[in-house]
């Protein structure tokens, strides 16, 4: 099991390195596909994946990604069409509620809420990987997402194994400790600072990014751990171990990217407002 997890993790890291460096529409397409798979995993957990109304979620996720790409190309002017996230929210909810009303009592309001939540929890949050990549200096700054999620996970696990004594959320994740979580935040901050130090000369920022990247990774780590705990809570609510088995040794897309779903928008907005 450990060897399988190690090998698949190495393959996943290599694939991430290739995709993120390549960027462009290729990264967007892969992100969209992973988001759709993640949505299916989530819908399967809440037992709506076989209901026809779930296709509304997939359709609006695709529409949202089309808007993301068009805006990244500078083709959407400011105004109502530029508000693609608001459009996705309003239009998808109106359509879902319309179907709910005109097919009543075929679907329950729980189905509507689950589908709507899946669009934003998975598809919208996942898109911030691409949105960060297309920022100025995004080729370098996008890696802060991985440092504050996967890097934070590694630091938290190491510190927790060495000195972890006080449980932080025993009902959600019995093995995680306060010391491990603090170690994850400090480790992510250090990784962000060192990363910015190494690539500072390649980033045409006009000012020193080391402190900003360190703080961004620390904040990202905190939010990453919230995402991790949230995913664990959902799995415990539905009494499952993993969302899927697509990635050997890791589970499904949501099992591997649960923390990154929260970290990506955190890093994006930290960079957007402070750089």
Low-confidence segments, given as residue ranges, are: none
List the secondary-structure elements in sequence, H or E: HHHHHHHHHHH
Question: What is the alpha-carbon Rg in Å?
Answer: 19 Å
Alpha-beta content class: mainly alpha
What's the shape?
A: globular
Number of domains: 2
Structure description:
The chain has 275 residues and is mainly alpha-helical. It folds into two domains: 22-134, no CATH class; 137-275, no CATH class. Helix content is 73%, strand content 0%. The chain has eleven helices and no strands. The protein has helices at residues 2-22, 24-45, 54-72, 84-102, 109-126, 128-133, 138-141, 143-163, 178-199, 210-237, 253-274. The mean pLDDT is 88.
Salient structural properties:
275 residues; mainly alpha; 2 domains; 11 helices; 0% strand; globular
Short account of what is shown:
The protein is an all-alpha fold.
What's the SSE blueprint?
Layout: H1 2-22, H2 24-45, H3 54-72, H4 84-102, H5 109-126, H6 128-133, H7 138-141, H8 143-163, H9 178-199, H10 210-237, H11 253-274
Helix pairs in contact: 2-3, 2-5, 3-4, 3-5, 4-5, 5-11, 8-9, 8-10, 8-11, 9-10, 10-11
């Amino acid at each position: 099991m450990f060897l399988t997890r190690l090998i698949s993790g190495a393959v996943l890291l290599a694939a991430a390195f290739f995709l993120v460096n390549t960027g462009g529409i290729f990264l967007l397409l892969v992100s969209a596909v992973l988001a759709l798979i993640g949505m299916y995993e989530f819908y399967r957990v809440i037992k709506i994946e076989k209901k026809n109304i779930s296709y509304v979620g997939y359709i609006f996720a695709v529409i949202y990604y089309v808007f993301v790409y068009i805006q990244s190309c500078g083709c959407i002017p400011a105004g109502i069409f530029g508000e693609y996230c608001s459009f996705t929210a309003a239009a998808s909810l109106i359509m879902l509620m319309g179907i709910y009303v005109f097919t009543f009592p075929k679907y329950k309001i729980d189905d509507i809420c689950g589908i709507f939540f899946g669009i934003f929890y998975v598809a919208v949050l996942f898109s911030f990987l691409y949105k960060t990549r297309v920022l100025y200096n995004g080729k370098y700054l996008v890696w802060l997402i991985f440092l504050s999620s996967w890097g934070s996970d590694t630091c938290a696990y190491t510190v927790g194994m060495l000195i972890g004594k006080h449980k932080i959320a025993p009902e959600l994740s019995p093995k995680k400790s306060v010391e491990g979580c603090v170690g994850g935040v400090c480790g992510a901050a250090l990784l962000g600072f060192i990363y910015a130090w190494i690539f500072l000369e390649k980033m045409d920022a006009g000012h020193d990014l080391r402190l900003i990247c360190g703080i961004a990774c620390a904040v990202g780590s905190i939010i990453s751990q919230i995402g991790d705990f949230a995913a664990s809570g959902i799995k415990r609510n539905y009494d499952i171990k993993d969302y899927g088995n697509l990635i050997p040794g890791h589970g499904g897309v949501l099992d591997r990217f649960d923390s990154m779903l929260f970290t990506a928008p955190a890093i994006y907005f930290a960079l957007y407002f402070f750089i």
